[in-house]
From TrEMBL:
Residue ranges of domain UspA in the record: 1-136, 150-288
Protein name, as recorded: Universal stress protein
Family in the record: Belongs to the universal stress protein A family.
InterPro entries reported in the protein's UniProt record: Rossmann-like_a/b/a_fold, Universal_stress_UspA, UspA
Length: 290
């Protein structure tokens, strides 16, 4: 079954940027584009906003206008549209399940950390079983043709980051881009308070060579599967979130893995994905673990 590239729209500037991004990605991958808008009838007593049929007609007209612009830019692209009745989160999660990826708009970064992705986007990212790409308003398509890299975070053993690495290599292959695979590491607590131990570790080969070997091992099957994709192996001491964000300015896309954590107040994504979504200026792909 051919999975489409799906964009979730709501008429906002951010969602239209996500739609434009999804259309370009569909063209690159040779896939159809599906445009989805979740809609729920909302009557208001104080203001005449039309009956159910009228509201739905307005929604469809706005959606058709957005899609018309995309079709004019990409005349050979197969595009389908769906106005789906229901709550936004549930509708988009279902749409993501049938997609190669789901593109959503993001409000961008600002002074109030924690309120930038939006509650709908945050929940969709947490629940979706397929990759979700967050695109900011004003996203510049020229960055995709400027030789910028696909940056992907790798951690743990080869299996831990397999899904994120696969997505990064597939995207780079479609774009003719370089993959920069980033592995961050920190000292175990036992070494943190012993400066002399750093010298001993270096004499013994050190922790960094171990981290480099781990990254190379994780990349090996993807290098073999995508021999035409250039790869930069980036190993750096520091927190994973900070290291990834330090190289994000050179990226056309930042790819992070996601393992949702269930808590008493609901599901939460990991700190690395959370930091990337709130602070990276390029589109961010959040890929659930296999």
């Amino acid at each position: 079954m051919t999975r489409p590239i799906t964009a979730g729209v709501d008429g906002s500037e951010e969602s239209l940027a996500a739609l434009a991004w999804a259309a370009r990605e569909a063209v690159r991958r040779g896939l159809p584009l599906r445009v989805v808008q979740a809609w729920r009838y909302q009557p208001y007593e104080a203001v005449d906003v039309g009956d159910r049929d009228t509201q739905e007609r307005w929604v469809r007209q706005a959606l058709d206008g957005a899609v018309r612009t995309v079709a004019e830019r990409h005349p050979g692209l197969e595009v389908s549209t769906d106005v789906l009745a229901g709550a936004a989160v549930e509708t988009l999660v279902t749409a993501a399940g049938d997609a190669e990826l789901l593109a959503l708009g993001s409000r961008g970064h600002g002074p109030v950390v924690g309120f930038l992705v939006g509650s709908v986007g945050q929940q969709v990212i947490t629940e979706a079983t397929r990759p979700v790409v967050l695109v900011r308003a004003g996203d510049d398509p020229a960055a995709e043709a400027a030789g910028r890299e696909i940056v992907v975070g790798q951690h743990g053993d080869a299996e831990d980051s397999a899904a994120a690495l696969r997505f990064a290599f597939e995207t780079a292959a479609a774009r003719g881009a370089t993959v920069r695979a980033v592995r961050a590491w920190t000292l175990p607590p036992v070494f943190a308070y012993s400066p002399g131990s750093l010298h001993l570790l270096d004499e013994a080969g050190g922790l960094e060579p171990y981290e480099r070997r781990a990254l190379a091992e994780a990349l090996k099957p993807w290098r073999e599967r995508f021999p035409g994709v250039p790869v930069v192996e980036h190993v750096e001491m520091g927190s994973a979130g900070q290291v990834l964000l330090s190289v994000a300015p050179r990226a056309q896309l930042l790819v992070v893995g996601r393992r949702a954590h269930r808590t008493a107040v609901g599901a939460r994504i990991g700190s690395v994905a959370h930091g990337a979504l709130h602070h990276a200026t390029c589109p961010v792909a959040v890929v659930p673990h296999d």
